[in-house]
Design goal:
193 residues, alpha/beta, Dihydrofolate Reductase, subunit A, 5 helices, 8 strands, 27% helix, globular, DHFR-like_dom_sf, Deaminase, 5-amino-6-(5-phosphoribosylamino)uracil reductase activity
């Protein structure tokens, strides 16, 4: 059975919105505040996560975000190469438009039911990047097995948070924490169900 891993870049106050500053919210681009040394270590962590994955899961908007930045065609490097080869599952109620990233399956219908089926079909890690609304839905249905939070030392103050209104409190167990370069911390949690 597959293990669903939510992998997020997150500010110290829980914001996941606009880490690259491309959404014109005025508070983004906290990703650019880390140093080059840290960015190199961060890229290693991301590559290793992708190498350990059997599939990617994302919402339509996150999928289109990756496409618009050349991940399907022009992005170079081992991480981009690995993401191109992985099977990708995109939750979308509408048809995907534009270029295809390759190995893409659109999941439609009842999202929790479709993701539960996906977890039964895949043996290994299914990594979910971004996709805040999708994370919330899957969290509410106890389908998330692990949270990997790359924490940035910045208080954004406003913006979409990873968790807002949940139906119930969930206890988590800290599995691992470690510094990433000079600026970041990676925290890995598992829900206690």
């Amino acid at each position: 059975m597959g293990k669903l891993i939510v992998s997020e870049n997150i500010s110290i106050d829980g914001v996941i919105e606009d880490p690259t500053g491309e959404d014109d919210g005025g508070r983004g681009n906290w990703f650019a505040r880390i140093g080059d040394t840290t960015r190199g270590v961060w890229a290693e962590v991301e590559l290793n996560e992708a190498l350990g994955a059997e599939a990617l899961l994302m919402g339509r908007r996150s999928y289109e975000w990756f496409l618009a930045r050349g991940w399907a065609t022009s992005r170079a490097g081992a991480w981009a190469d690995r993401l191109r080869t992985l099977p990708k599952y995109v939750v979308s109620s509408s048809a995907l438009e534009g270029p295809d990233w390759g190995n893409v399956t659109v999941l439609k219908g009842d999202v929790p039911e479709e993701v539960a089926k996906l977890k039964e079909q895949i043996d290994g890690d299914i990594v979910l990047y971004g996709s805040g609304r999708l994370v919330h839905t899957l969290w509410e249905h106890n389908l998330v097995n692990e949270l990997r939070l790359m924490t940035y030392p910045v208080v954004v103050g406003t913006g979409s948070r990873l968790f807002t209104d949940t139906s119930d409190a969930t206890d988590l167990r800290l599995i691992n924490t470690r510094p990433v370069g000079e600026d970041l911390a990676l925290h890995i949690y598992r829900p206690i169900l």
